[in-house]
Structures are given as structure tokens and as C-alpha cells.
Design goal:
The complex is a heterotrimer of chains A (305), B (328) and C (308). Chain A has 305 residues and is mainly alpha-helical. Chain A has two domains: 73 residues, no CATH class; 172 residues, MetI-like (MetI-like fold, Orthogonal Bundle). In chain A, 78% of the residues lie in helices and 1% in strands. In chain A, strands 1-2 form a two-stranded antiparallel sheet. In chain A, α9 packs antiparallel against α12. Chain C is an all-alpha fold. Chain C contains 14 helices and no strands. Chain C starts with a helix and ends in an 8-residue tail after the last helix. Classes of the chains: A mainly alpha (305), B alpha/beta (328), C mainly alpha (308).
């Protein structure tokens, strides 16, 4: 297990290299941030001076080397909006995003696992129809609209929850439900189809032939097997979940990474954009690693090396 | 029937209720098994032999259902008892071994976990006791290094070893009836003989009755007392194993015997029966075998033969052998 | 195994359809009517297409006409509502219904063109990867993998932030985020066709095998292609709405559902109808496309039907 972890962690390095290169290219293509950084009446001389000081007159490879040198010291440059180093600003927003993501995952798991199992074992029952129908409906609904509708209903009409912002537990509920039910819809569908397949396996029949109660056949013998594809596919969807967080944060003015990134994109604050993309990519990679570990814990057939 | 009858199946009907209509997979099957006796149910794919065994286990899945008849286990009709009572029998009094050892064990749990699961369930044994019994069973079925195998996962074992584990699991609670559905089909020929011998020895030891389901009459010859030949959901011939090999009456049984290799008759070519079992949805009128029978007469296409006794303890469902008696 | 009901009857509606097929179209149509959700899906999709084509004739008002006297009027069934503005008006007095009707145009146009673009890119990459194999295949497939690791919306955000939001950029971005599944489909099919005996034989006597591959590829990929495309239109419409909602997609004065929603969000406390109706329009349209796509999958590509 230790060896496997080390190797898997080492694999992250080239991926981060590729991502940083892509980000650099994008920013290079994006061209001149100078115009945005200076007041509109700045003289040509001022512009030239700033360009020179930012190293923007250097050729591509020199700029790239400077950029990489910065990366090794975790320096993504300065945000011209905050006049501060970009990475600390991004990292400062991270806890809020993680809080939201964890709350959403908890909600998703609490909904999806029982619902997925139930609808698979009682095919075409009312619960199954509700689960499959709900999955399709949630897939068709834009997640940000669901958030707005929840605000409309529970904050504006009933006044139960605050409309936006972060702070108390009450602030967390609506954004977590928005994001969590969105994830749950896909997860329920996955668990259901995975369970349906597993329940037809020979070893389920063997378990039944031993006189084991249905409850244990389903929750011991079938569910653990069904979880394996669910973990794999959910890991592949981490990027979708991260994408959902970006939008949900905007809807609820949740002061996380997503809100910061979208503001940065709108103001073309490229240092922040770069740092955010890098941090997000890092998180996605870490989640995939985590999924790999869970996968190996779940399935004894996979060897550690 | 006397008290030493373990299982009595009477006019069993197991139907599948599909969107395309009712499909009678098992259609009026009657037989019995005595204590310590080994019987074989023989037939091709689609003959209804596996569904018969699943009916006895109470494991016919939706949309299938036991639609009629009785299954008496030690005199009690187990088609009428509650799920809970059935669970108490299953794995305990009646155990089953399946065809595919490779897929019949749960890949995520250790061999020991899966064997001791039913020991703990049915014998109310503690974890340690169950482990002891399980390792004992693993040794009995001839598994070397039983302690090590106990804590291994199934994917590390060969097919033959896994089938031994399945047998250990099935016999761990000393069942009165063991149903084995093609237990050796998926195994190498050399391993087949070992597994069959193992089953025979262990059942003799505990006086366990065996119901062996197979398509291979060669297997039957060596270890069974009685043979039931099934075709398209019905019993077509029912007799003891000697009579069956010496004097098979039903053309289908003859066909099956001709397609089994025999060591002492090297000269003959192996015959095979033309065609396949009609799917349960499109069973022909008259005798169900009429589409493939070389002796079929007009009568076979219009009237349905009954299972009749041609000599003591020898029943056949065929007009060829009923003529004389009907004429009386 | 004896009498396994799955093998004898489990072939489902595809293998046991209507006795004789008069024509493929008629047969499909009958199958469609058998599926309630498929029928509903087709009706919704056709309706939305018709609405977008005849938007000018159907819309009661000019969608961009500002009317300060009619600001934030509620829908007709509420107090203060007006029959002139069935779904109410927005903060500038523009008719919501008309705006939604016109909004369908951009949603469909962007959704469909992005999917077409994705299809072109994906088929090209898949053909190249499958045909040449080796190192080219390897590089292209790693590219596919890395595309799957980047959050679609993040990718779109960065590109749009660099090139600035415009309809062509949006179509290109959405197209680029979607091509991966086509590439995988076509590549897999090309690889399996290449392995077949007759292709090998043809190659050995010097026939150009790319023609054979193309000829055999089409019938094999057309069904999954249609299914993937249909469902991609649905996800693309949602993605476009999300980007427009974030202010990085369709820019005013072009009307998009996401844009109307974004305007309406600021008035959520007082005027619920601004944000509600465009969202409903998106949901119903996407639901229709999903229903249609699922039905198409059942009919065209029964192999892909997993437990539904």
C-alpha cells in the first residue's frame, strides 16, 4: 500500500506540468493585461514601462521559464485587483469551497445510497418510479435555477434561510441541497443500475441459497460489489462536481473559490485565474487518487503494485 | 410413500409470467427422493431441470412463480411455508451447489467469511466455533492448507478449488438434501471425477440425499440410483439407473445415450439428436418431442402422451410404449 | 442452464416488434407511440423547434421593446397582471413570454451547432487514432483523458475569459468540450473493423483499406452517433445557459434563457416570475430532449440499454 501511494503521488507531477503548461499558453495567447491594469488615460510610456517590468516583452520561452521558476516557489504572480500575491488569495477561499463540497457530498450520499438500493430491489415500485423520474428531472434542471427556486421558496417566501452568504449553519443548507441533490441524481441512477446488474450475479443466488435474509444479501453481498463501479464513475465525475460548485457559489454568493474565479474571469485578473485553475486541477487529481485508494480497499482482486 | 422419503415433488408447475405471455418452464413434474438416495435429473438446456431445482430451493426469481403442485420436504409442503421458515431450511436442511464455481462465490469476501456465514446463521455458532467448523469442512473437502485458504479471497483459487469450497459451504450444516446443478460442467475432466467422488463420499458419510442435475449421462452412470429424464418442462422417463442404460424406452433417452461416449464401444460414431429443445413459448401440440423424434407417428402430432408405467418403477411418456396398454 | 426465461423472452421490445416491417420509419413511429416518454419527448422537441422557427409570428411583443410604464408586471393570473403580458414583464417592461420565445432560438442554435462541431472534431480524431494506431493513437487518447480531467465549465470559463464572450467563441468552446465521446466511439469501431478478416484480406491484395473502413464504419456508428448527439444537445443547452447566467455566454441584446434568468435573479425578492419561467423553459426543453434521446437509445442501440 505504501509503495502504491508513493508511485501514485509521483504520477501527479507530470500531470501538473502539463496543466501548468496549458495554463501558461492560454495566458500567453490572452495577451496584454496591461491595458486593464492602468487607468485609461495612461501614456504610451507608462504602458511600455509596465510591460517591461512585467517581462511581457520577453520571447515565449523566456516568459515560460520565468513562469515556471515562479511556480516552483508557488508564485503565480500578483493579482492586479487585490495587489497581492495570487495564491494566498485563492487558498484563503478554499475552506469555504471545501465546506460546501463536503456538505453536498454528505447530502448526495445520504439520498443516493438508500434510494438507489431501494429502487433496484423494488423495480417498478412507486419508490423506483420516484427515483428514476427524479433523476431525469434533476438532470434536466439547470442546477443554478434549482438554487434560485430554493431561494425563492425557502428564503423569500418562507424566510427560513438566509438568501446568500456564508456564516451560520443555516447559510450552508440551501447551497448544499442545491449541489447535493444535483450530485445525488446521477449517483442514484448509477447505484440503481449497478445494483440491478449485481443482483443478477451467481454469487447473490449462492448467498440466497444459504438462507441469508434479503436485507443482508442486499446490503452485505450486493451493495459492496455495486459500490465499485459507483466509486470509479463518481471519481471520474469529480470535475463535474467541481464545476457545479463554481456555479452554486455564484448563485448563493458563497465566498469560495468559484466565486473568486468567476469574478477574476470577468475582470481578466489572470494571476488569480491561473492560481485557481491550478488549485482546482490539483484537487481533482487528489480526488481521483482518493478514489483509487478506496477502489483498492473495496476490491481485493486489485493488487497494490 | 414411507417415512424415509426426504423430498416428494408432486405435479410441480413453475411458470414465468412475462410480457409475452405465460411460459411453463416446469409443467407437471413428479418425483421423490429417499433418504441417502442419489437421483439425477437429466436433460438438455431448456428442459426445465434447473428451474425444478430452483423451485425446490424457493429461489425462482420474478417473473417466475411456482404456479401449482406441491413440494413436500419431510412431509411438509415448502411451497406454502413462510419466507422465514424457508430461509431456515435453505442452506441448512437443503443446500445447493451451482454450475459456475468461478462466479458463484462473492469476490469481495474471504472464503472463510462465506462458509462461516451460514454456519453462524443456522447453527447459532460463535465466530470462533464457526471458524473451527469451517476449517474442518475445508479439510474434509480436500483443501490443503485449509487455514490459509480460510482467509483467502476466491479469486486466488482455481475452479476446482472453488467448487470444493462450494461443497464445503453446502455441506457445512449437514443438509438432508443436497442439490447440485451441473457441479462439474465447468471443470476439467480430471477434476470432474474428483469432485463427484467427493460428493458421493461425503453424502454417504452423513446419509445426505443428492439431487444431481446434469446434461451428461456419463456422470449419472457412476453415482446415482435413479434417473429422471426431462424434456421441455416434463418428465419423459423415470427409472433406476441400470434399467435406463440397459433398456431405455423413450426415443429422447436413447438419443441422449447415443450421444454419450462409451469406452467399450469404440467402433460406433457418436450420434447427436437433431435440433434443440423447443423454447417454452412454442411447445408443439401432441408429444413435445415430436419435432425431433425419428419415430414420430401421426398420433404424436395430435395427442399428448401421459407418463405411464411400462414395467415396475419404469415410467415413460411416449405413445410407442403406451399403445399396448391403452389397447387393453 | 435449463429454461432460462431471460434468453427466450428477454429480447425486449426491439426484437419482437410489429410482425412485418412496412418501412423502417413506420415501424419506428409505432414503437415511439408505444413509449409514453418517447412520445412526450418528441412532442416537446418538435414544439420547441416550431416555436423557434416561428418566433416572430408567435411572440406577442417585440422582445427587446422597453416599456417603462409596464415595469415588473406580474403574470396574467395575479393581481395587477395584464392579458397583454401573459407571463409578466421584466425590470425594463419587456414581455417575458416574447423573450422566452425568442430565447429558444439561441438555445437550439448554439446547442445544435456546438454538437455538430463536436461530432466533426470527434469523428476526425477517432478516425485518425483508430486508423493509424500506434503512437498517434496513444497521443490522441491521452489528450482525450486529460480533457476528461478538466471540469468542462472551468475550461469554458478560461477560454471565454481570454477570447471574450461571443456566439462563435461559445459554439467553439462548447464543441471542444464535447468531442471526446465521439472520438472514443469512432476509434473503437475503426479498431474492430480493422481486425476483421475481409479487411485484412483486402489489404493483403493491395486494396485501399480506408475505403472499406469508411464503408463499414458508417452503419455501425450511425445509431450510437444519433443517440450521443441528441443527449449532447441537452447537456450543451444547460451548459450554455449556465455560462450565459454567469455573464460569460450570450451577451445582450441577444436573448438567451440563461441571460433572462440572470436578469431575473436580481429581482427574486419581489418578482419571482422573471427567474422562474426561463428556467422552466430550459427544464422542459431539456427533459424533452432526454426523453427523446433515451427512446432513441432503446430503439437504435439496445446494447447500450443498461437496466432502464
Amino acid at each position: 500500500m505504501g509503495k502504491f501511494l508513493v508511485r501514485r503521488l509521483l504520477q501527479i507531477i507530470p500531470v501538473l506540468f502539463i496543466i501548468s503548461f496549458i495554463v501558461f499558453c492560454l495566458v500567453f495567447v490572452a495577451g496584454d493585461p496591461v491595458a486593464l491594469m492602468l487607468p485609461e488615460d495612461a501614456s504610451q510610456e507608462d504602458i511600455e514601462q509596465l510591460r517591461e517590468s512585467l517581462g511581457l516583452n520577453e520571447p515565449f520561452h523566456i516568459q515560460y521559464l520565468t513562469y515556471m521558476a515562479g511556480l516552483f516557489t508557488l508564485d503565480f504572480g500578483e493579482s492586479f485587483r487585490y495587489n497581492e500575491s495570487a495564491l494566498p488569495i485563492v487558498l484563503e477561499r478554499l475552506p469555504a469551497t471545501i465546506e460546501l463540497a463536503i456538505a453536498a457530498m454528505v447530502i448526495a450520499i445520504v439520498i443516493a445510497i438508500p434510494l438507489g438500493i431501494w429502487s433496484a430491489t423494488k423495480q417498478n415500485s412507486p419508490v423506483d418510479l420516484l427515483a428514476t423520474g427524479g433523476s431525469v428531472l434533476w438532470k434536466a434542471m439547470p442546477n443554478f435555477w434549482l438554487g434560485i427556486m430554493l431561494i425563492l421558496l425557502f428564503s423569500v417566501t418562507f424566510g427560513w434561510f438566509p438568501v446568500s452568504g456564508r456564516g451560520t449553519f443555516m447559510h450552508l443548507i440551501l447551497p448544499a441541497i442545491t449541489l447535493g441533490t444535483g450530485i445525488a441524481a446521477e449517483m442514484t441512477r448509477l447505484i440503481r443500475s449497478s445494483m440491478l446488474e449485481i443482483l443478477n450475479q451467481d454469487y447473490i443466488r449462492t448467498a440466497r441459497s444459504k438462507g441469508i435474509r434479503d436485507f443482508f444479501v442486499i446490503n452485505k453481498h450486493a451493495f459492496r460489489n455495486a459500490l465499485i463501479p459507483v466509486v470509479t464513475i463518481t471519481a471520474l465525475q469529480t470535475s463535474t462536481v467541481v464545476g457545479g460548485t463554481l456555479i452554486t457559489e455564484t448563485v448563493f454568493s458563497w465566498p469560495g473559490l468559484g466565486q473568486l474565479l468567476i469574478q477574476a474571469v470577468n475582470t481578466r485578473d489572470m494571476a488569480i485565474v491561473q492560481a485557481s485553475v491550478f488549485v482546482i486541477a490539483f484537487i481533482v487529481i487528489l480526488m481521483n487518487l482518493l478514489a483509487d485508494i478506496i477502489y483498492k480497499v473495496l476490491d481485493p482482486r486489485i493488487k497494490y503494485n | 410413500m414411507t417415512t424415509d422419503t426426504i423430498l416428494e415433488v408432486k405435479d410441480l408447475k413453475t411458470y414465468f409470467y412475462t410480457e409475452n405471455g405465460v411460459i411453463p418452464s416446469v409443467d407437471g413434474v413428479t418425483f421423490d427422493i429417499k433418504k441417502g438416495e442419489t437421483i439425477a435429473i437429466v436433460g438438455e438446456s431448456g428442459s426445465g431441470k434447473s428451474v425444478t431445482s430452483l423451485s425446490i430451493m424457493g429461489l425462482v426469481g420474478s417473473p417466475g412463480k411456482v404456479a401449482g403442485g406441491e413440494i413436500l420436504f419431510e412431509g411438509k409442503d415448502i411451497t406454502k411455508i413462510s419466507k422465514r421458515e424457508m430461509r431456515k431450511l435453505r442452506g441448512n436442511e437443503i443446500a445447493m451447489i451451482f454450475q459456475e464455481p468461478l462466479t458463484s462465490l462473492n469476490p469481495l469476501f474471504t472464503v472463510g467469511n462465506q462458509i462461516s456465514e451460514s454456519i453462524r446463521l443456522h447453527q447459532k455458532a460463535s465466530k470462533e466455533e464457526a471458524k473451527k467448523i469451517a476449517i474442518e469442512m475445508l479439510k474434509k473437502v480436500g483443501i490443503p492448507r485449509a487455514e490459509k485458504i480460510y482467509s483467502s479471497h476466491p479469486h486466488l483459487l482455481s475452479g476446482g478449488m472453488r467448487q470444493r469450497v462450494m461443497i464445503a459451504m453446502a455441506l457445512s450444516c449437514n443438509p438432508k438434501l443436497l442439490i447440485a446443478d451441473e457441479p462439474t460442467t465447468a471443470l476439467d475432466v480430471t477434476i470432474q471425477a474428483q469432485i463427484l467422488e467427493l460428493m458421493r463420499n461425503l453424502s454417504r458419510e452423513n446419509d445426505t440425499s443428492i439431487m444431481l442435475i446434469t446434461h451428461d449421462l456419463g456422470v449419472v452412470a457412476e453415482m446415482v440410483d435413479k434417473v429422471i429424464v426431462m424434456y421441455a418442462g416434463q418428465v419423459v422417463e423415470h427409472t433406476d439407473v441400470y434399467t435406463l442404460f440397459k433398456d431405455p424406452k423413450h426415443p429422447y433417452t436413447k438419443g441422449l445415450l447415443d450421444s454419450t461416449p462409451k469406452i467399450h464401444e469404440l467402433k460406433e460414431e457418436l450420434q447427436s439428436i437433431e435440433g434443440t429443445v423447443p423454447p417454452p413459448g412454442s411447445i408443439p401440440v401432441g408429444c413435445r418431442f415430436n419435432t425431433r423424434c425419428p419415430y414420430a407417428t401421426e398420433k404424436c402430432f395430435s395427442e399428448t402422451p401421459e407418463l405411464t408405467e411400462v414395467s415396475p418403477n419404469h415410467q415413460v411418456r411416449c405413445w410407442l410404449h403406451e399403445e399396448g396398454e391403452v389397447a387393453i | 442452464m435449463a429454461a432460462n426465461p431471460q434468453t427466450t423472452t428477454g429480447t425486449g421490445p426491439v426484437a419482437t416488434p410489429i410482425s412485418k416491417s412496412p418501412s423502417a420509419f413506420k415501424r419506428w413511429f409505432r414503437l415511439l407511440l408505444k413509449s409514453k416518454t418517447g412520445t412526450v419527448g418528441l412532442i416537446i422537441v418538435l414544439t420547441v423547434i416550431l416555436i423557434s422557427i416561428f418566433a416572430k409570428q408567435l411572440a406577442p411583443h417585440d422582445p427587446n421593446q422597453i416599456n417603462p410604464a409596464m415595469m415588473l408586471k406580474p403574470p396574467v393570473w395575479m393581481d395587477g397582471g395584464s392579458a397583454d403580458y401573459i407571463l409578466g414583464t421584466d425590470n425594463l417592461g419587456r414581455d417575458i413570454l416574447s423573450r422566452i420565445i425568442f430565447g429558444s432560438q439561441i438555445s437550439l442554435a448554439v446547442g445544435i451547432s456546438a454538437v455538430v462541431l463536436a461530432g466533426v472534431i470527434g469523428v476526425f480524431v477517432g478516425l485518425v487514432a483508430g486508423y493509424y494506431g500506434g503512437i498517434i493513437d496513444n497521443i490522441l487518447m491521452r489528450l482525450v483523458d486529460s480533457f476528461l480531467a478538466i471540469p468542462t465549465i472551468l475550461f469554458a470559463l478560461v477560454i471565454l475569459s481570454i477570447f471574450g464572450p461571443s456566439v462563435p467563441t461559445l459554439i467553439v468552446v462548447l464543441g471542444i468540450t464535447n468531442w471526446v465521446q465521439y472520438a472514443r466511439l469512432v476509434r473503437g469501431e475503426v479498431l474492430s473493423i480493422k481486425e476483421r478478416e475481409f479487411v485484412k484480406a483486402a489489404k493483403s491484395i493491395g486494396v485501399r483499406d480506408n475505403q472499406i473502413i469508411l464503408r463499414h464504419l458508417l452503419p455501425n456508428v450511425i445509431s450510437p452517433f444519433i443517440v450521443i448527439s441528441t443527449l449532447s444537445v441537452a447537456t450543451t443547452i444547460i451548459l450554455e445557459a449556465s455560462l450565459s447566467f454567469l455573464g460569460l455566454g450570450i451577451q445582450p441584446p441577444t436573448i438567451s434563457w440563461g441571460g433572462i434568468l440572470s436578469d431575473g435573479r436580481d429581482y427574486i425578492a419581489t418578482s419571482w416570475w422573471l427567474a422562474t419561467f426561463p428556467g422552466l423553459a430550459i427544464t422542459i426543453t431539456v427533459l424533452g430532449i432526454i426523453f427523446l434521446g433515451d427512446w432513441l437509445r432503446d430503439v437504435l442501440d439496445p446494447r447500450a440499454n443498461n437496466g432502464r
